User: Fold these one by one.
Assistant:
Number 1:
Amino acid sequence: RAALEATAYQAMDVFDAINKDSGTTLKSLKVDGGMTANNLLMQFQSDMISVPVVLPQVSETTAIGAAFAAGLAVNVWQSVEDIKSMWSANKTWKPSMEPKNRACYIKGWKKAITKSFGWVEENVVED
């Protein structure tokens, strides 16, 4: 469970940086891949980033994305809009954690991160 939660916390940190740097806010997160099979992770991710996490009908979108790109190149589809119209959601996880609990979890994550500061010493002997 700790590894799953750490994954969600790390993604939260990345999205926080993106939101800050871009000046925009994430409205939802579309996910794919093997980790989407874990409901605990997907719900925790939604709770930590405070936006819905959306799983498409086709959960392995890397391969289908390559197929779509190839199809565009040979005019199987005329536009990106043609492809977008084929996308549909399979499942959505919505934030459900109480804000005070979320804040407590995030505070614990940030404290845990500080424990790793200075972990590697500067004068490490290499083989």
Number 2:
Amino acid sequence: ALIVGALSAAVLGDDESSCQMPHVAPQLARGADPGPLGGAEGFLLSAKQRAALVSRPLPPILFAKTHKTASSTVACVLLRAGDWRNLTFMVAQNGSGFNFPGPFPGEPWNAWAAAADRSPRGRARFDLIVNHAVLDLPAMLGFLRKGPERPLVVTVLREPWRQAQSAYNWYPRLRARSPDEHLDWAEGLAEVASAEAAAARNPQAHDLGWYRHTGGSTAHDAADEGWVGPWVSATLSAVDVALPAEHLEEGLLVLRDRLGGRLAVEELASLRMKEAGPGATVRFSEAQRARAGRVSRVDAAIYAAASARFNQEVGALARAESAAGGFAEDLERLRALNRRLAEACEGMPQWGYAHLHPPTSQGEAKERACPVAARTDARGYTFRTTARLCAARTTDVPAALCEDPHVAGSLLEHGAPADGEAASSSYGVSGGEIVHQCWPPPVSYSTAPTESWVTQSPRAPVRIKSSDDRTHVAHPVISDYKRLPPRAWAG
């Protein structure tokens, strides 16, 4: 199982000077996780809330993550909720997706599954699947644990032209063409087989398995009665909760209701992740918006059907709770939490996506109000989760994923390896010294006599206890996880 609240002292290290996990308050650093947001000012679940929530376990959850629909925001809600509950995640390759846009799950999970099927536990051992993949319900459900409750299937959908505009601004490969040239190209596609094509034509339907259904052909995109209508009905029948990106807060409350209130309103508070690409602010004209809807007709069809269903669901929920004022009160409370979180995190970097940077020290008060866990996107959280699984030497992760250098960097957040061992190649790190960014500003500590671990804060020098048992002082000049030669710090 994912090592969270029960993270062992051997992994954290016995020395009180070991670096704390970024989102853990000092008094809780030695194993007790303070909850998903890990901050104060209303974002911290109380011990009473946590005890009540843990006593009511969540069902397995399959999140069909669609691109550029606020799905990273929802994924982070689920990741944080599962994190402190000690749930087991099926973690994706590269922290991002399962063999996308190919068949689920891809390597190394295919080899892992073949081996797991020969073990007593089998492959059905995970509580959450949240990363990008082309929806294949039978295959995915085969990895989720069996229990008294069936898995809950969740997705997010967005108005097609808004999704298309967001994707155009986010992906440089799409912006290589003008908006009209991009739409010309997407409209002329005979098949959708590449990631670029999947981002341009019916991307949401693609992620939910439409082109797997058609064999990749776009010939059936306009065949509403014979192909699109039945597929939309079947897909939405399999999806328990389809949240509209335009009404995300209401949608998260519907999700909470479907889970029987087993998520606290505080757990739904979130930042919008990856809203736009750097410097990309193109806005489609009215004609381009209409055309984007025509290019992605299947997206338009499933979005319309899902929106109609959602309106009925949220209306029924609001009416059912109107006497006590529950839904309206919870919605206002969630909006207030989101406003407070957005204000606290203004100007602070998100962590996890390839071209964004790890968070830097902003001061203790700022970081307690805007904890790292709140501004870590799904990719960063996946790296952290993978690192925890690797640190625990669990069989719930393919060994090949532990070789990822990003996983190695995340592994350092949890202290030295077990039993005082030096970092090894099994974690994607071999030899040399390691930069470990940590919050709050670090103190010196050492590991095995053959290895030195370096900690740094961007605003202060660091102390390093090296293998010759001398303490050195170095100025932080590296802003990311890297291997350092001795000459970079020994002076």
Number 3:
Amino acid sequence: NNATMGCTQSTQHDDISVTERVMGGRRGIDKSERIHSRSERAKLAAKRAQVLAQAAENPTEKTPPKLNAAGHLVAEEVARRISGFVQSKETVVGDVKSGNGEDLIHVRYAALTQRGYYPDDPHKENQDDYFICGTKFGAGEGDAFFAVFDGHGDKGHDCARFAKKRLPAILASKVKKQRAALNAKKIKAMTENNQEKPKNAFHPSSWPYLNEKEYEYACEQAHIQCNKEMHDNKKVKDFLSGTTAISVGFHAGRMTVSNVGDSRAVLGYRVGGVDLDGTPAEEEKKEISAEDDSELVDAAGAKYESGSIIAIPLSDDQTPYRRDERKRLEKAGARILTIDQLEGRKPIEENVEDFNLGVDIDEEGDMPRVYCKDHNYPGTAFSRSLGDFVAEDIGVNGEPEIVTKKVTRGDEILVIASDGVFEFLTNQRMIDICAACDDPLHACTKLLEASYEQWLNFELRTDDITCIVLFLQSGKADDVAEVTRIMNNATGERKIKTIASTSTHQL
């Protein structure tokens, strides 16, 4: 839902001439057009004055928001733009059928969203959206689903709302059907073996869980189907508009993260962990022989301090900054250029700089974008999305990248957010902010405040800012091998290794 930069929605999917004119110049979809020079700032100030003058001439139109001397929203205007939870909520997810308390995950959660401010479009609506189902998602007793959608383009708000409505519904339906089919197969086998069926054998609470691959497949197909439905829906104009989708589904004691675009999910993992009764897990390590021990270290080889909470990215931003995504897009026929390169201000180089999003902050702002081979559009700063019909032929598709992790003792904080949060905050900074809070709603509030402050430091405008924060509590022992695998698979923030054995045990 960052600035569309003139990317006006065409009324016809084949009106390429109109699209070419609209997308000419310093324009593109998603990410802000950073303003550095005095002339650019002067132009924006003139535009703001024009908006105010038009409002004065037409008192029936919406009143412009109140600004302070620096041209920023006053506190009361900022407060009006925030919506979401008024208090945190609680739920229990996990394997509720096992009868083992360690298989249950106690969750507290909250969500907030703040509408951005664009001086040249002060009444631009919030293009972010979120979805939360804290219990019985897809008829599963211990299932839940959390998602954030970040729309972009002239009709990005419509795309985000469509995805919010359809993606969870499609996934819930697929999971429910797969579990019902597994249950029917189980009952058939019991009948053939003359086994007595349990009570409520056909009730969803008795259905078998999906395994990791089955649930991931359901997530993948749900995104692909949602993308197709968006293209086919005549009420949703997704020619040059679309949305990101970052979601976390809880099923059978696992969390499965599905990502399309550049929104993000980050885990706050406590090294060492703590039992539900408050006993440090470190004491349990005494039962493990020293030669079987393994410790996590960062890329420089330094050990993480026991008890510290480290940020583990559960998703990788899908942008042309990623080498693998650039290759995939170029293979599909895309050009990867910055706006300065497109306009001839800088030479076109074969190798785009690799960027560790999540650790490094892109202060320059002229990020690589995706263009058709012979046209100066669509100019997307992401490499995957739901919608964006015109960009699909050059590789910008809705296929998600998926990561699954068993929820264990060390998993304490989970943040799902749009790039309004992450634009100027690193993953670790964001987790540190949450760790200093005693409640998820408090954490959401602090994230909004910190993100908004950073936007004002770098920009004359502010993006829409949305986050869901979950505080997790599980009694299940940590799995170092799994943590290592997830951290090593992250293309952005951390590349780590294990010392000594890679056997599974508590940290």
Number 4:
Amino acid sequence: MLLRFITSAEIKRRVDHFEPFVVGQYEMDVAAFCERSVDVMGEESDHIHAQALTDAVQVPVRIIQIDSSGGQSAEASVVDMKPEGLSTEEQAALGPPKVHMLYRPGEHQCHMLSKRAP
């Protein structure tokens, strides 16, 4: 729930940035979008949510989406999200994503990776 509130606050804080995406995709204003799609539990998250959360906490996130709609075999696609508005040097200093989120339709899991001893 805390991550949803952080995401919602970032979308509202940067309304000028997120509004075109919200209005274009959901046909509602930012306040209504946050109330109906971000603040409540049980709603699916999408790219807008992930980018807002990544920007708010300034941590790169890797999203691994598992699609098993094709039957018994599943396919995975990977999307790396980086905080927007950082210089190239700041982006490089963050390094690779350390938070990995596994997404399957109807299910979200968040995994924190730790460094392994050599």
